[in-house]
Design a protein that fits this description.
Chain lengths: 445, 344
């Protein structure tokens, strides 16, 4: 008579296993004798690429992780969990246990203790239960002898052994793409909305958690990168190509730390795209600003002073700094109010401040950033002291009143320029991108 | 008039989620009208598309940074809903630390009193409170230099016709239920002490960690480990089962403003025991099952409920709910609109 194999009290047990890791499959069958596993062929990190994942809408442009670490193995692991959930839904199970293939039991499976744990699980109103996490023990609000509800973000993640109900599996599967969390971090997101419990003492642990991470056998984090001589993680160029294997830790903004997850930006960088990074054709902005500055170099003395209104990300400011003709660049930015570029690029004024600093920090001894409205700043300057004023008229406003305020500050032989062709005075020099330059003596209000 | 809600609530606290749902219904708003203070660019959309903003802030916040970035950009009137007084929670947590941990420290993370005051002083055009108790506490704690116009407008319990007791699940037994954050401020320690004197009562806590994770964990684990009839069950998934299995609802808060689930419980035939110190009890002017925090008082009221004949108990609940009839959508919508109109 053929003995019916156990599924440990659940409808099915799905094991995520890489085809090339037969060793793990064999070890699992030794460690869990008489247990009936349904193996899910894992997606291999070596066989997927970032562009492919982007084009299939499988990954999000930002990835969030407590430690800011990602590898192709993380994406592959995430997709493998999704594959297992979808298989469970297709099989019509009421509940299922999901395992990764490098796990081992900490007590004898099917022992009396296990039966007691199972009884408590069955009596609880769970949506998802971790049968083990990365640490041996977990603390939280206890709901029984064995089960507890850990604190959100208690940072003992792990998705190597969890039970989920049918409804929960459906929820997990239908909300995962495009991926923005590793599988274990994703499971943590349901702490607020669902009954996510964990065993106080891990029943099932992962082999890689027993040893020093740098020598752990982990296809998700370590194996490939150790062979390649790199550290854990991966980073990308602006097109999403892998450029090295060092730790990818790009903190978008210090506030991300407050919200507990580091944001790893996978899409192209947001800074520098406004003026000097065109997709094709002549770079009119670049050519125009250099032409404008060349003209100033020919006509202004060294160590001149200039004012720039509304520098925004400071791309022009960078070039003014590069010119070496200005001893002082007064950059006046309110950093408030509606700005279409910010809105379209999902940037805040805090991001703009950081962008400005990134673009101009090399000239920080020259640049003074004045954070108030230009109309309130004119009296900070002496009359007839400024050689050049440049106006970025981002919102196409009437600049007449501003000019009236600032004209007395500009030297008799000084210059006025701007980026908006609508402001272009008669007799001014016009550049290819619509910017303009005029000598104060030629300017008429 | 077009209203929007601006909030920093990212976690679905039980009471707060119920109240937000209620506000949306009362004011005919949808989720499209809710904005997150982390999305600073939404301010420009709000300025262009709304006339008034209702500000709902989760006091569990370690920094005022996002507030000071967001609110100066909003040009329309900002009415702050004072849904609770953080300083009162902080004080309750300090009492907890003294009583259980023998320290004077609080583990509760919230803005400092100075920052809270700054927010109201600098950015609020008007204030809405849920109870008179909070008006008094607010004035004690913050004493604004420029007094702000205010109204007391509680969250609605629904349409007037639906505010009546449903006795379908009414089933007298010795089970006490609670749904919310198992905190000291919510009276968990008081019930625990009382039930030592009444060992035949079962207490089932439903809910989640709440804002004060560590303190609530310590308290709940202490309660469940010292009294086997005290259980924590996780999030409440089947409300009807809860109403049927539990006869008494525990709201023995040291402090609260408007415990929405207490109202839900009485509408569904449960018998709440209420704290005389909490804002919730303001809405139960003739209700007999009010307690202080002493075990003797709690035991006395539990015994009183037990001894009250069923018909009389039903009459008490019916009368209490009758007195809640004014907390309905139409009336409160009018009150909100009348208040908003003063800011045009």
């Amino acid at each position: 008579m053929i003995q019916k194999l156990s599924t440990l009290g659940f409808d099915k047990i799905y094991v995520i296993n890489l085809k090339r890791r037969l060793d793990r499959k064999e070890q699992l069958l030794i460690d869990f004798p008489d247990v009936d596993f349904t193996f899910i062929e894992a997606i291999d990190g070596k066989e997927i690429t970032i562009p492919q994942l982007f084009s299939n809408n499988k990954i999000n442009s930002s990835f969030f992780d407590p430690n800011g670490m990602i590898t192709m193995g993380v994406f592959a692991c995430a997709l493998s969990h999704k594959k297992a959930w979808d298989q469970a839904l297709e099989d019509g199970v009421e509940n299922a246990l999901f395992l990764e293939d490098d796990v081992y039991p900490t007590i004898k499976i099917l022992s009396n203790t296990y039966q007691k744990i199972l009884k408590e699980i069955k009596e609880s109103d769970y949506d998802l239960i971790h049968l083990g996490k990365k640490t041996l023990t977990q603390e939280g609000i206890d709901i029984g002898t064995y089960l507890t509800i850990p604190r959100y973000n208690s940072n003992h993640h792990g998705a190597h052994a969890y039970v989920a109900t049918k409804e929960m599996i459906q929820t997990l599967s239908s909300n995962y793409l495009p991926i923005k969390y590793a599988a274990d971090v994703y499971l943590e997101q349901f702490y607020h909305t669902h009954n996510v419990f964990t065993l106080k003492t891990s029943l099932i642990r992962q082999n890689s958690d027993k040893v020093d991470p740098q020598s752990a056998d982990s296809d998700t984090y370590y194996n490939d990168y150790r062979e390649g001589g790199g550290r854990v993680g991966i980073s990308f160029d602006e097109k999403g190509n892998v450029i090295n294997k060092s730790i990818a830790k790009y903190v978008k903004h210090p506030k991300d730390i407050l919200y507990q997850y580091t944001e790893v930006v996978l899409s192209r960088p947001k800074f520098g795209i406004q003026k000097f990074n065109p997709n094709k054709g002549l770079n009119k902005n670049f050519l125009s600003i250099t032409k404008l500055i060349s003209h100033l170099c020919e006509n202004l003395e060294e160590n001149s002073k200039m004012i720039e209104l509304n520098s925004h990300l400071g791309e022009n400011t960078f070039f003014f700094g590069c010119s070496n003709i200005f001893s002082n660049i007064y950059s006046i930015n309110l950093y408030r109010g509606k700005d279409n570029f910010n809105i379209n690029n999902n940037l805040t004024w805090e991001d703009i401040k950081i962008g400005f600093h990134s673009n101009t920090y090399f000239f920080e001894d020259t640049i003074s950033n004045i954070n108030q409205h230009p109309e309130l700043s004119y009296d900070l300057f002496l009359d007839n002291d400024i050689s050049f004023m440049y106006i970025n008229n981002r919102n196409n406003e009437d600049i007449t009143s501003l000019l009236k305020l600032y004209l007395p500050k500009i030297k008799h032989n000084g210059y006025i320029g701007g980026d908006n062709i609508n402001d272009k005075p008669q007799n001014s020099i016009e550049f290819a991108d619509g910017s303009w330059l005029i000598k104060k003596t030629a300017y008429e209000l | 008039m077009k209203l929007c809600i601006i909030t920093n609530y990212t976690r679905g606290y039980i009471n707060d989620s119920l109240i937000l749902d209620s506000l949306l219904k009362t004011l005919d708003l949808t989720s499209e009208d809710i904005f997150d203070i982390l999305d600073i660019n939404s301010t420009y959309y709000i300025n262009d598309n709304y006339t008034h903003s209702l500000i709902l802030l989760d006091y569990k916040s370690s920094s005022i940074h996002s507030h000071t970035q967001y609110f100066p950009e909003i040009n329309i009137p900002k009415i702050f809903v004072i849904d609770t007084i953080p300083q009162a929670h902080k004080n309750a947590d300090i009492s907890f630390s003294r009583e259980l941990l023998n320290t004077n420290n609080s583990a509760l993370t919230c803005l400092t009193q100075e920052h809270q005051k700054l927010l109201y002083e600098k950015y609020a055009d008007g204030l809405v409170f849920y109870c008179n108790l909070d008006v008094e506490l607010f004035n004690n704690f913050y004493s604004l230099i420029t007094p702000k116009p205010y109204r007391v407008i509680p969250p609605s319990l629904g349409d007037k016709s639906s505010i009546q007791t449903n006795f379908t699940n009414f089933s007298p037994n010795s089970n006490i239920g609670f749904n919310g954050s198992p905190s000291y401020a919510n009276g968990i320690f008081s019930v625990l002490n009382a039930l030592k004197l009444l060992p035949h009562y079962h207490m089932n806590l439903y809910g989640e960690h709440g804002r004060n994770d560590i303190s609530n964990e310590i308290l709940t684990n202490y309660a469940t480990s010292t009294n086997p009839l005290f259980k924590f069950k996780g999030k409440l998934k089947n409300k009807n089962k809860f109403f049927k299995e539990h006869h008494i609802y525990s709201n023995i808060s040291l402090y609260d403003s408007f415990n929405y689930f207490t109202f839900v419980s009485i509408l569904n035939g449960m018998v709440p025991i209420l704290s005389e110190h909490a804002g919730t009890s303001e809405y139960f002017p003739s209700y007999p099952f009010i307690v202080d925090h002493t075990p003797e008082s709690i035991c006395k009221v539990l015994e009183k409920i037990k001894k009250t004949p069923i018909d009389e108990l039903k009459a008490i609940l019916t009368q209490a709910v009758f007195e809640l009839k004014d907390i309905n959508d139409d009336k409160l919508k009018n009150e909100y609109h009348n208040f908003f109109n003063t800011f045009f």
